[in-house]
């Protein structure tokens, strides 16, 4: 799936999807429902009557008796399926899965997936999980599990088959564009722990990897920054915030992580269907990085909450965004509880960066485009983004992303092959290039301040919008 929510402790708690979301309590549902019923006109009544006619015909004449609950749930799913790809009905299993994604751990493979034309399609593997180590890539199609065809299953049914007791084996068949035949893989399920933040130190630079915006991600990132400073015994000369293949998470965490690097200003706004339905989120005073240079790494798997952070730091001139154009999911989902075990996941708004940009379809364009040359399949593997999903919301300001990604001339900095890089000990070219860029920033130069520019030595000439 491409969604995750804040754990639903009570009906009044806020719920948010990966991507960020509006808050709505159960108490708010009463006037919402009442207002909606008040707007039912004669045309709507006629359509409801048509639905009831179909329902009664099925109940009376279908070849076998049909359970009422099955018919109603099918109608609900069909109604929501006619909307955008991120709206849907959460039955008891789906609701439990979303809770697990944000508050617990499970036995599985570590995959973020969606459904396309009845086939499970990979959004991105989570770093350092069985799926990642097996080499599953964004855009891969999973057609078989344990030699059984899964085409036609629901997404929840397919996910249930991939999950299981840690230590158990699972065989999957992957179809990858550009490959002449399916790829057979044998994996072992592991405990997928929802630890959203990892950190390391390289050349006096703190590298912070955020794998998901699950609960407490902001707290964990702040702790990681303190751990880096403790290890170094001083402030690092810069930070790299790695959001690659991060499918998103909770809006509160996206705002919190952005706020760690900002002194002031807007972080994100979300706007609903009504003119006055706007909510804005602002940074509080206090930059945890102390103004040190920041590079944000993104790729085509960086979605929603990741795009909120990248867009905020880019628009506020607080960081250089590097890598590949992001996924492009700029819509907001709200989870509306229907009962203790079921809920409605509904797209209710769009979000916008501080400068008023919508990333829907277009995504975040990096200041410095850096291909992942260390991936041998990089050039041949197609990129999978929001604009590839059927029924996706259209950006009001249409952008031709084909032109954005078209290279007229090869960049002389990016001609090395994966084999050549491996021979030099470079396993992650994008991270390597980001570390080099931080290294070019003079150690005695003034710290990078919000609203300022990254001071770079004249010897380095990567073009960037700072």
Features:
466 residues, alpha+beta, 6-stranded antiparallel sheet, 6-stranded mixed sheet, 21% strand, disordered N terminus, disordered C terminus
Largest sheet: 6 strands, antiparallel
Helix content: 25-40%
The gross shape turns out to be: globular
Rg estimate, integer Å: 23 Å
Let me know the number of strands: 19
Structural class per helix/strand content? alpha+beta
Low-confidence stretches: 1-34, 442-449, 451-466
Counted by DSSP, the helix tally is: 12
Determine the N-to-C terminus distance.
34 Å
Please outline the helices and strands.
Elements: H1 26-38, H2 42-61, H3 68-81, E1 88-90, H4 92-103, E2 105-108, E3 111-116, E4 119-125, H5 130-134, E5 141-145, E6 148-149, H6 155-162, E7 169-175, E8 183-188, E9 190-193, E10 197-202, E11 205-210, H7 217-232, E12 238-242, H8 251-260, E13 266-271, E14 278-282, E15 294-298, H9 305-315, E16 320-323, E17 331-337, E18 343-352, E19 368-369, H10 401-404, H11 418-423, H12 429-440
Structure description:
This protein is globular. The strands form 4 sheets. Strands 3, 4, 5, 6, 7 and 8 form a 6-stranded antiparallel β-sheet that branches. A 6-stranded mixed β-sheet has the order 10-11-12-15-16-19, with helices on both faces. Strands 1, 13, 14, 17 and 18 form a 5-stranded antiparallel β-sheet that branches. It has helices at residues 26-38, 42-61, 68-81, 92-103, 130-134, 155-162, 217-232, 251-260, 305-315, 401-404, 418-423, 429-440; strands at residues 88-90, 105-108, 111-116, 119-125, 141-145, 148-149, 169-175, 183-188, 190-193, 197-202, 205-210, 238-242, 266-271, 278-282, 294-298, 320-323, 331-337, 343-352, 368-369. It is 28% helix and 21% strand. With 466 residues, the chain is α+β, with helices and mostly antiparallel strands. Helix 8 packs parallel to helix 9. The chain is built from 12 helices and 19 strands. Strand 13 (266-271) and strand 14 form a beta hairpin.
